[in-house]
Known about the structure:
Layout: H1 4-11, H2 15-27, E1 30-31, H3 32-39, H4 43-55, E2 59-63, E3 71-75, H5 83-92
Antiparallel strand pairs: 1-3, 2-3
Organism: Halorussus gelatinilyticus
Protein name: Winged helix-turn-helix transcriptional regulator
Pfam family, one: HTH_24
Amino acid sequence: MATQSELEDIDDLPPSAKLVFKVLEYKGALTQKEIVEESMLSARTVRYALERLEELEVVEEDVYFADARQNLYEIDASCDTSADCADAKNCAD
């Protein structure tokens, strides 16, 4: 589960990284090309956003078996970053 500081780190990201995060949150695992299509951001902007999200360890990169030249990006399953879960955790504390 994401800590409060991890959620704050996501809040400090540029808007493009937040958008990429939300696209992955709603659509699930996607390739970089699919993220570009869904977000309507440039490929370079998506690459930068994914790098920033990977630095925070909230997005993980995996091999896309349908085309090994591409990678598949998804929200790290061990890191639940939804605001509802964070609020529930804060209420439980």
